[in-house]
Amino acid sequence: MQVSIETTSGLEQVMTIGVPAADVDAQVVTELKRISQSQKNNPGPGFRKGKPLPPKVAKQKYGKQARLEAVYQQMQQSFFQTVQEKEIKLAGMPKFEPVVDEEGKDLEFKATYEVYPQVELADFSAIEVEQQSAEVTDADLETMVDTLRKQQAQWNASDAAAEDGDQVNIDFEGFIDGEAFEGGSAEGYGLTLGSNSMIPGFEGALVGSKAGEETTLDVTFPADYQKEDLQGKPAQFKVKVNEVKKPELPELNEEFFKAFGVETADEAEFRSEIRKNMERELARAIRTLTKQQVVQGLVGANEVDVPSALLDQEIDRLRQQAVQQFGGAQQFDPKQLPAELFKEQAEKRVVIGLLMNAAIEANELTPSDEKVNELIEEVAATYQDPDQVREYYSSNPEQRQQVEAMALEEQVVEKVLASAKVSQSEATYEEIIRAANQPAQ
Fold this sequence. Notes:
The protein is of the alpha+beta class.
């Protein structure tokens, strides 16, 4: 078998392979036998059912089909054998093109494919990371308990004036220059005051209103409002308040504690469990923010060529996620979504993956049992039966592999931090949780 490899552009290579005619002929015979066997119950006129066709007849009937399949088999086998021998890192499936494909002659074909880029990582010392620290204060705990109570609140109609945090049911109609505009009206609209779900000034103007009252609000649409024809325009809204509802917070008792998975009648024990959960959440958030900075540092310090095959795969993944997120309609083909919608995000993901893999290889990292167990314990601690979680990961290799992948990423972060310029800063619990929950830039 003769092989030559040429790099055409960027990460694309073309491999030209010559396969002896005898190898192709032998494969044709194999394919003819397979086809003949598969057709023995439908041999056609003049032949007995259940008996394979004679070789000569089989060649007349199925020779072309057998050669097509034999050539494809030979191209695949020869190509992937060469890839293995030469340790080529394929970044996608090849495209085959026969150059010489004639009976009695050596087969010659070309395979066009992409390879993974060679990533030479820049020195980690150029990366800057600001590590934040915080603690869960008594005030943070009180805020969390208050939030949990509000989640379980009973909403009761009230004749009292509406306050921030109350729910109001309203009818409204909006006008610009005295004319009603499209999308500016609703009836029976439920609104929580202080939720900032309406344009600035709208909710605040309803504080102090009572059920049955009508009022006119003067507001201005933001300059960056989603509808361009409304951006920056002053408007008036005629509003009728149909109902005001105020929350009745539940008592801190055993029934309330149980709703959040804490089996106790002791308020101090409940608060202790909530604090532990907040501390775990805080630790995860700090780790997330640190990792984001490390990843941003790696991306900023290294230029990476992106294989189009990997980019296409990632775009398809994002398309699938988008369809699932919006109901996962079976009749909707994700490929109908324009690739451009996902290209930037997909490219960033691919680059991050390539850099992470390069760091793992360069530092010869393998998943640390200690780190894997630490991550599993972190999950187990949030369940009532931690042993059940541990057993789940120990008996499910695929799930454990996912944790091992996370552990490897954590180890990369630790490796980078050991050489990077790391500064320390203090923040509040709320600041860190909010920052960690924002989409990564």
